Amino acid sequence: MKTTRLLIVLGHILALGVANAASSTNDLDRGLEIATASDRNFSGYGDSKTTLKMLLKDRKGFVTERVMEMRLLEVANDGDKSLIVFDSPRDVRGVAVLSYAHKVGSDEQWLYLPALKRVKRVASKNRTGPFLGSEFSLEDLSFQEIEKYSHRYIKDDSFDGDEFFLIERVPLDPYSGYTKQLVWIEKENFLIRQIHHYDKKSFHLKTQYFKNYKKYLERIWRPTEIEMINHQTKKTTTLLFEQLTFNTGLTNKDFTQNSLKRAK
Length: 264
Fold this sequence. Notes:
With 264 residues, the chain is α+β, with helices and mostly antiparallel strands. It has one domain (40-262): outer membrane lipoprotein receptor (LolB), chain A (Clam). The chain has three helices and 13 strands; from the N terminus they run H-E-E-E-E-E-E-H-E-E-E-E-E-E-E-H. It has helices spanning 2-39, 138-141, 257-262, and strands spanning 47-57, 63-73, 81-88, 96-100, 108-113, 118-122, 149-159, 162-171, 180-186, 192-198, 204-216, 220-230, 235-246. The protein has a 13-stranded antiparallel sheet with strand order 6-5-4-3-2-1-13-12-11-10-9-8-7. The protein is globular and about 50 Å long.
């Protein structure tokens, strides 16, 4: 009799384990499906140029403004390329960052500092700190390819009158500055509205907001404002996107290490 009861208990435990494993697999599949649908909103743009204003607000509310240009190039079957060049103020004028995102393997980034007049490759483990005093890291400024994360559906959620999918994505890069990110994606159009970034100690380090989306070329969505709030430093950096144009004729030749030095 005792043996029978034991077998029944063990059977229940085994069934529960199988059910939990199936549920976990389903959540992973659904998380990836949602992330893939969201990624389609940003794909198919070819190339683009945009003028950006970067507003740095310290914990006392003092704001510093920077102006830069960002150029993007879509790459078939791999991650995209980007080039960011600072125009003002004078102390950062000419500073440039070149990024090659990859779907598999570590991203590549190079930094040009006019004062040194040389291009420096950025090691993967050095991409996590604040970039030029902002609350964005070089990791944040690189493309967030879906292949670089595992994705898991958490739950449906709602705020501000909108419905969302909440997914958790975990960086696969061992040098990432984050242990995980919680991402709120609109159900209606699969646009990312909010990301919570968790540091290496699993504390909620930063919150990133994507605001005022606009649709281009009848299919490409872009936010006109991205705000990054650092909950530990109490500082905020806001990116304002202006003069966004697509299909400008950029090619791979515009995204080389030599292009860093001559970019203006």
